[in-house]
Design brief:
Radius of gyration: 19 Å
Shape: globular
CATH superfamily of the largest domain: Zn peptidases
Strand order of the largest sheet: 1-2-12-3-13-17-15-16
Structural class: alpha+beta
Strand content: 25-35%
Number of strands: 19
Distance between the termini: 21 Å
Helix content: 25-40%
Order of helices and strands: HHEEEEEEEEEEEHEHEEEHEHEEEH
Number of domains: 2
Largest sheet: 8 strands, mixed
Number of helices: 7
């Protein structure tokens, strides 16, 4: 798409960095939940409209934010990839981490803080190297090395802390809509079905935007705008995707069209559910997915936030 102008202000780097630093792999989203709730308590007085916060055992560690008379829901998953300590010094992947040997892994067990190194045998089985035995079941994630340049942010876990960041920025001015912070996306999903059921029955919502991070590929590039995904492994309803493309075009927001045959997201769970949800994945592209060096262009972050603000008003 031709280069246009985005009116979105600069990236709130301190917020994004703080989100990346939260240890919350799939199955341990509670820390991310508590971070988001604390952030909402601190910031909601400055938001344009009143928010209703829905939490509780009926949605486990997920969070729902409801504004006004919602028509559309944003889904942003809170979890990351990582590793679980097995027996001896063996590691089992959480999701699909992609890291080299010697990568620093961090965590905490009852004996204290952990900073280990990732190792592999000749069959690519993962192990840790550390000065003591780590308790089995302990989760380990990449040590955060957050880097900022004039044009790029580079850090572990921009997928999907950037999707969470986007949702929190949309909350600042959202008039009508629901934001759903989901769990387990990186390790097969499982929360979106019951979140969608609640949203559909409670507020009659049946359309959704997936606030997640996609890939830089031969057809999607850094700095050319947020990606609107026409399909991945799953195929959303074309009429809904076309509506989103038309709104982005009319409002002169930078975007790229993505067409892939692999990959999935919370949108896949919506499509497989029994509910008549329309959905579309709309997210900034990143290089080096699931590695300690995920990399996103700042202009693509700006266009992602700008497009979501328009879509939540117009859909």
């Amino acid at each position: 798409m031709p280069k246009k102008r985005s009116s979105e202000p600069k990236v709130d780097v301190p917020l994004l960095k703080s989100l990346c630093e939260v240890h919350a792999p799939s199955g341990q989203e509670h820390a991310m939940k508590e971070f988001i709730l604390a952030y909402i308590r601190q910031k909601k007085k400055n938001w344009k409209n009143r928010v209703q916060v829905v939490v509780g055992d009926h949605i486990q560690d997920c969070i729902l934010l409801k504004f006004g008379k919602p028509r559309t829901a944003i889904f942003a998953h809170m979890d990351t990839v990582g590793f679980t300590v097995r027996y001896s010094n063996q590691l089992v992947a959480i999701g699909s981490p992609d890291a080299e040997t010697e990568t620093k892994l961090v965590g905490h067990d009852r004996f204290g803080a952990i900073e280990a190194k990732l190792e592999f045998d000749h069959e690519r089985h993962a192990f840790y190297s550390f000065g003591r035995v780590i308790e089995r079941g302990t989760s380990l994630t990449y040590k955060i090395d957050f880097r900022e340049t004039a044009s790029f942010i580079e850090s572990p876990y921009l997928d999907n802390r950037l999707g969470v960041y986007n949702a929190l920025k949309i909350a600042e001015t959202l008039q009508d809509g629901v934001i759903a912070f989901s769990c387990w996306e990186e390790h097969g999903g499982g929360s979106v079905g019951y979140l969608a059921d609640y949203i559909f029955k409670k507020w009659k919502i049946k359309q959704a935007l997936i606030s997640d991070i996609t890939w830089v590929t031969d057809g999607v590039h850094h700095g050319e705008g947020v990606a609107i995904s026409m399909r991945d492994r799953n195929v959303p309803r074309r009429s809904f995707v076309d509506k989103i493309i038309n709104i982005a075009t009319q409002h002169q927001i930078d975007f790229q069209l993505e067409v892939e045959g692999l990959g999935s997201s919370d949108g896949g769970e919506l499509q497989r559910s029994h509910l008549p949800f329309d959905w579309c994945f709309v997210g900034a592209p990143e290089a080096n997915a699931h590695t300690p060096n995920e990399k996103v262009h700042k202009d693509d972050i700006a266009s992602m936030v700008a497009l979501y603000r328009v879509l939540m008003a117009k859909l």
